Amino acid sequence: MVHYALGNSLVRSLTLASRPFFEQPPKDFSEVPLGRTMPVLVHAREEELGALDALAAAIAPYASLERVSEGQMATLCPVLKVGDGGAVSGLVDRRGLRLDPNALLQGYFRTLRHYGGSLHSSSRASNIRREGSVWTVITEGGDNFSAPVLVNAAGSWADKIGEMAGIRPLGLEPLRRTIITFDAPEGSDLSGWPFAKTVGDELYFAPESGRLFASPMDEVPSDPCDAQPDDYEVALAAHRVEERTTIEVKRIVHKWAGLRTFSPDRNPVAGFAEDAEGFFWLAGQGGFGLQTSPAMAAAAASIILGRPWPLEDVASEELSPVRLVGHSA
């Protein structure tokens, strides 16, 4: 999703700067649209109205919001519990975007190949070293790659890659997030349903390929790994769906988990390491990496290539890894 009920002002500025790319990508970037409009509904119970007001004020500079009543929420999302014990007020951004991750990734790969780049999967790094002005990465398969700039975009493994290269880690923390999919109530027309989120980090759910998906918005510390869903978080997701909606989750169709990696101040990182020439950090995108990727890519290219800074409302210092020195201890 592209929405503004996530992160802080820096994340929202990066999201806003990225939106034009999703709506009007470069010519020949993708054969299909990168996203489609889906309303975003943030809902609140009586005791959460203060948090809803604060969120409305925080989002107002970035998106046009509509305050909606119980009846309006019930019309937009028929399964949402409203009234006594349920949601009593909400915020709607009717210009939310549901992204197509595959189309976006394929577009990036197509662009990479157009400019002479190549993708090497299943190529785990076994050795990283700098010799003179060149970084060299040797894989477990024996392949050898060399360049004057090494971009560390290894997600949850970014600190591990830094350590392998002899670079001081940033204190990045991988956090596991769980998703389930389940059947919608029989006869439901999901075509106009929103991406619905509690005002606090408790639950979100939305239509997904004729079913619904949901997350309890868990953030469980993890080592870098191929994350697997934990039974507790799976059950918690179903429980929270039943608490906040009129749905009974009778059968979980699919379940999966992924790692979202945050820096200590929960802002993304883009910049050269202070302690090694040519080592570039591109990490800590948390749960907002996809929706901020065009802006983060432009920022990274600007720093690496010495181009004019492309982001009007974000300073390069806000993304710099230098701000995190000392956090890894």
Would you give an account of this structure?
Helix 1 (9-23) crosses helix 7. Strands 2, 3, 4, 10, 11, 12, 13, 14 and 15 form a nine-stranded mixed β-sheet that branches. A three-stranded antiparallel β-sheet has the order 6-7-8, with no helix packed on it. Strands 9-17-16 form a three-stranded mixed β-sheet, sandwiched between helices. It is globular and about 70 Å long. It has a domain at 39-95 and 173-262: 2-Layer Sandwich (D-Amino Acid Oxidase, Chain A, domain 2). The longest helix has 15 residues, at 9-23. It has helices spanning 9-23, 49-59, 70-76, 101-114, 158-164, 231-244, 293-305, 316-319, and strands at residues 35-37, 40-44, 66-68, 89-93, 97-99, 125-131, 134-139, 144-147, 150-152, 173-182, 195-198, 204-208, 211-215, 220-221, 252-262, 269-272, 279-283. The model has no long low-confidence stretch (mean pLDDT 96). With 329 residues, the chain is an alpha+beta fold. Strand 6 (125-131) and strand 7 (134-139) form a beta hairpin.
Brief rundown of the structure:
The chain is α+β, with helices and mostly antiparallel strands and 329 residues long.
CATH topology of the domain at 39-95 and 173-262: D-Amino Acid Oxidase, Chain A, domain 2
Number of helices: 8
Low-confidence regions: none
Quickly give the structural class: alpha+beta
CA-based gyration radius: 21 Å
Distance between the termini: 34 Å
CATH class of the domain at 39-95 and 173-262: Alpha Beta
* Shape label: globular
* Largest sheet descriptor: 9 strands, mixed
CATH architecture of the domain at 39-95 and 173-262: 2-Layer Sandwich
Number of strands: 17
CATH homologous superfamily descriptor of the domain at 39-95 and 173-262: D-Amino Acid Oxidase, subunit A, domain 2
Strand content: 25-35%
The chain-level mean pLDDT equals 96
- SSE run: HEEHEHEEHEEEEHEEEEEHEEEHH
Helical content class: 25-40%
